[in-house]
Amino acid sequence: MKKLIPYDVREKVPGVAELKQIIESNIQVIEDPLTAGLGYYSPNARYTPGSLVIKSVEQKSNQTYSMSYSYDWTIFNGCLDLNAEEDSKETVSFIIKPDGLEFDIIDFDSVGTENEL
User: What is the pTM of this model?
Assistant: First the structure.
């Protein structure tokens, strides 16, 4: 799924430090999709709101970048005597377009086992 952080970059392409600031100030646009994959671990896994931290932004090619980030999450299942706090470290790519930063995020809503057979 593509998610866009609106930002006018028609005049000049921001540097890596400025890109990190732009993303941090607009993190609410991409926070939910970036943390949506917790269902892979368990349907009881929950993102800890506000824990997403951008670790780094790196340029890969002319207009392509990668962003490394981490976040905390918890899982509770009383039947299995499971109550844990974990953290995840992930990377996502994005490109700079004239109207903003376009992130290419895995759409976990469409991931399932119904089409495996």
Answer: 0.82
